Amino acid sequence: MSLHPLSRRLMAPDITAMKRVKPIISLTSYHAHTAAIADKYCDFLLVGDSLGMVMHGYETTVPVTLDMMIVHGRAVVRGAKKALIVVDMPFGSYEESPSVAFRNAARVMKETDCGAVKLEGGQRMAETTRYLVDRGIPVMAHVGLTPQSINVFGGFKTQGRTRDQWAAIENDARAVAEAGAFAVVLEAMAEPLAVRITDAIPIPTIGIGASSACDGQILVMEDMLGLSPRVPKFVKKFGAVAIAIEEAIQAYAEDVRGRRFPGEEHVYTMKDGAEADPPQGSAQSRKSRKS
Ligand code: KIV
């Protein structure tokens, strides 16, 4: 369990300061109620653009818009009181130029009240990262498998499994660290590369499919809860929420069908004690129609 000795919400420098001190705990979060629960245990919550796939049923994160990120970002900020909230910049909202990235990231910060944004990309995003940080926007970077580039990768492919791929990915992580990112997500990469990067850079590495060598871990909440129908190899299911939901819905349907729900305890009575006409279709109204 993560302890929050501070009474204020954690900020980007607090996460950076945790490197080599204690493991950083994080999850994605897209809505207020689950954010409130995760807030008790997590150092930061990421409003990931994976919400496009998890909440909205898209095949990739590419269709996600800035407005979608802002709606979910606001909900998570309202639900969580202690954790730093990081909001993903969606595909198309930051790549064009540092000034476009600033305009959109500033909108995300103002409209959600989050504490940082996340950008996918290493060396190619270094200039933009520096531009945002210099203007007051903390940036979490994301290298290795960057899902917004799925159409270039040709699928959700694990990175760094051959040594010839290492230099480019390590240089990506170094570039964003030098540009002022406060942490970097390492997604879906071979363990020896994650070890190397974690040792080489001064900012925390947050692993998702990048082994326990990283300074912290993140998972998509619905994946680790056992709610997502398909999950990658690196996910451990800590719950069986899909089964619990199905059992509850099945029980509800059976109770409605068998007229056991709503029961007396769920029904409003009249304040003055007068009896109302029985609702149409109720057992009582059918009985009185027969008599
Ligand atoms: O969008 C997301 O959920 C992410 C995590 C995979 C880190 O970027």
Summarize the structure.
By secondary structure, the protein is α/β, with parallel strands linked by helices. It contains twelve helices and eight strands.
Descriptive account of the structure:
The chain folds into two domains: 227 residues, Phosphoenolpyruvate-binding domains (TIM Barrel); 29 residues, no CATH class. 38% of the residues lie in helices and 13% in strands. The protein is built from twelve helices and eight strands. An eight-stranded parallel barrel has the order 1-2-3-4-5-6-7-8, surrounded by five helices. Bound molecules: 3-methyl-2-oxobutanoic acid (KIV). The site of 3-methyl-2-oxobutanoic acid (KIV) has 12 residues, from strand 6.
